[in-house]
Amino acid sequence: MLFWILAGFLTLLTVLTLVWPALRDKETEETSRYFNLQVYENQLNELDSDYELGRLKAEELHAMRIEIQRRILEENYGRLETDTTTSQPKSSYILVTLIISFLIPSFSLAVYSNLGAPNLPDAPFSQKAANTPIKTISSRAPNNDSINKDQHPAIDDMISNLEKKLLNDPSKIEDWELLGRSFLIRRQYGKAVDIFLKATDISPSNMRIRANLAEALVLSAEGRVSPEALKQIKLVEENNPKDPRVRYYLGLADYQQKNYKKALERWMSLQKDTPSNAPWKKMLQERIRLASKEANTRPEIQGIKQRAETDPDNLSKAGSVNSTSILQKRFSGPNSDEVKAAESMSQKDRQAMINSMVKRLAERLKKTPQDVDGWVRLSRSYRVLGQSEKSVNALREAVQLAPNRVDIQMAYARLLFPEGTDERKMSVEFKKVIKHVLSIAPETPEALYFGGLISKLEGDKQSALNYWTKLLTKMGPDTPARDMIETRIEKLR
After folding, report:
1. Alpha helix (H) ranges present in 221-346?
2. Which of 1, 68, 74, 82 is the most exposed place for a label (fewest CB within 10 A)?
3. Cβ neighbours of residue 93 under 8 Å, at least 6 residues apart?
């Protein structure tokens, strides 16, 4: 009797094992689709962060958002299509379960009644053990790859789908990027490097892909910035010096080369431009703390620190955490008495101190008006304080002193024509600056874009076409903003 109870119990388990996957297929598919939608949602959030950091223009933000939203709609459409073609009423699943539950035990009993021997006595353990193969430790050891796959089934499904898509159409750079990022999530950094290398071959001018490649190279080297990673980072820096990842990893390279002063300067500059809700903020603060600790043990840094304490105008030169902690309460730094005193101030007192420092910097520049970088720092300080007119005037001084500094010229142009300004309200001075940049650096993408706008407004359609056509040649084939430029070109023709 006990035998048949055990047999019935095992049969029930067998039936449930066979039936359960059929009942939860839809749930697994939904999990995969949910993960894809989460990835797209994260990309939308990253777009907003890039826009706030100034890495994207309003038009680019709009174009990229439309593209991601299109993918979300496509995913939802696929879901609806699957539901309409494969969904079955719940009763059909119950019917199938009942039929299987009846057939499997019936078939098993029929087979066992002919081939089995339920009344056969048990054999001694020693006899059974002699016929049992010995299992080694290696045969029982788990396979790391299989464990890793079991932990991320939804990501595995997405990776498989992306690989199939890329086999059919390897030109889609956004799919290469998504595949590489998926391998980064899986911590398969070597595979991520391979994917991003292929993507750079397809779109060598795509700096976002190169930034991802640099990040994958650093992660694959266990946090070390290798020469190849540094090469990719510097390529991105040439095109987008404000990219947070570029600035962070350049600081990390300096830190690993024991150039603590330079690393501290880079990270402090990055922290000034970092939003309060940025996900990398805490990590950056920790890096600043470590660099500060290392820097303060070196004689040359001590000298800079002393100069910063005696002359607050040297804030940016010093790279000292003291001065920056005074300017921003949230900044980390060494535990000096001056920092503690500044952080204990009220908001009103701290603001007064900041105003005093900016005022002293302005007074010093009256005595040393040839200090180009000093005027740039003063302009930035006024902008942080919300004094836009003074910020423009200060940067104008730097523009006049350094007419061939493209970075300063373009920064000045952005102040004259902030994002969101009506195209028809371009000032004469802004047009003059853009035309000057195009004369000294005709390959500058941002200047090419504005040059096309200016020519269009002035009625010179051919020049506008020339500028924007040239800009297209510098863009990757799948750059989201490319559609916007192509649309503008079509409207001119």
Report:
1. 227-239, 244-256, 260-272, 281-295, 299-310, 315-318, 321-327, 337-343
2. 1
3. 22, 23
In terms of Cα–Cα distance, which of 38, 37, 46 is closest to 64?
46
**Other CB atoms within 10 A of residue 88 CB:** 10
> For residue 350, what pLDDT is reported?
63
Distances from the Cα of 242 to the Cαs of 56, 73, 434, in angstroms?
A: 11, 32, 20
The first and second tokens of residue 49, run together, are: 């962060």
Q: Which of 131, 187, 132 is nearest to 155 (CA)?
A: 187
Q: What is the pLDDT of residue 140?
A: 31
Question: Does residue 319 contact residue 304 with C-beta atoms inside 8 Å?
Answer: yes
User: Residues 313, 318, 321, 326: what is their CA dihedral angle, to the nearest 10 degrees?
Assistant: 0
Tokens of 293: 């600790």
Structure confidence at residue 134 (pLDDT) = 33
Q: Which segments of the chain have a pLDDT < 70?
A: 1-4, 7, 15, 18-42, 44, 48-57, 59-63, 65-98, 100-102, 104-105, 108-155, 295-350, 476-481
Rg (CA), the chain: 32
Q: Which SS3 state, helix, strand or coil, does residue 152 take?
A: coil
Q: State residue 390's pLDDT score.
A: 92
Neighbours of 333 (CB within 10 A): 25
Distance (Å, whole) CA 284 – CA 268: 9
Sequence-distant (6+) residues with CB within 8 A of 196 are: 176, 177, 180, 209, 210, 212, 213, 216
Tokens (6 digits) for 379: 């302009």
For 266, the token pair is 């880079």
Residues in CB range of 433: below 8 A, 6 or more apart = 399, 409, 412, 413, 416
3 state DSSP class of 247? helix
User: Cα separation of 228 and 265, whole Å?
Assistant: 23
Which two structure tokens, joined as six digits, stand for 484? Answer: 């916007």
User: Which residues, in sequence order, are CB contacts of 230 under 8 Å at separation 6+?
Assistant: 249, 253
What's the DSSP call for residue 313? Answer: G
Rounded Cα distance, 26 and 22, in Å: 8
Given this model, what pLDDT does residue 482 score?
Answer: 76
Contact in structure between 40 and 72 (CB atoms under 8 Å):
yes
CB 379 within 8 A of CB 398: yes
